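We now fix the convention by which a protein and its fold are recorded. The integers have meaning only within a learned vocabulary of local backbone shapes. A record is reproduced here so that you can trace the correspondence yourselves:
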Amino acid sequence: MTDPLTDPLPTPTLKRRALAWSVHLFTATGAIWGLLSILAIQQGQYKLLLLWVILAMVADGFDGILARRFHTKVYATEVDGGLLDNIIDYLNYTIVGALLVIQARLVPQGLILPAVSLIALTSALQFSQTEAKTDPRTKEFYFKGFPSYWNLLALYLLVLGLNPWINLLVILVCVVLQFVPIKFIYPSRTTFYYRLNLGIVYAWAASALAGILMYPDVPGWLIFLNLVCVGLYMLMSLLSTLHKPRPAHN
């Protein structure tokens, strides 16, 4: 019997190449959402910022699925999709998050620059780790360590209105967690309870979108529901870390 995973892919055609290149273009739109996020931060339009952040995450969530579907590594080899994705993610997740910390003064005034410098520096190292998203020994896909969700973290700190010293402590803990070998669920690829993880992410996205429409008068129950989704994500990540998969056989 022929193994479909080893079958040669169809010969490149103009249509297949166009579809593959369209995926790279879709990924690159994240740069636009990042730019719009920066402008929204500068103008203090945080409700608009929430929208751009969600759109950036949608693009980030689906581009990998599309890349595998349309075989960008075969039909659009001129662009390194993984490198492009990391560049866009660093902009949207790290730089946008750091700028929000600065603009909203989320940490004590005299420690803003050291805090955001630490975020930028450690995230650059985290994004460039060779096994940041996968374990080649098990063929499992996940984020290793806190996956630099600085834009989301900064938004939560903004909405919750916590004491700046507590915010600083949270940021420092997440800086350390970037280099702790804890698995964080990669929703579109982690096979461990895949459908449950997707359900949690969809519930989080729905509550986040509702929050955008209601901001700044977001009801407490909606914030609680969104935080429950975050807690479930963390719980599934912990269970995934404790789960010991069998090594893959070639």
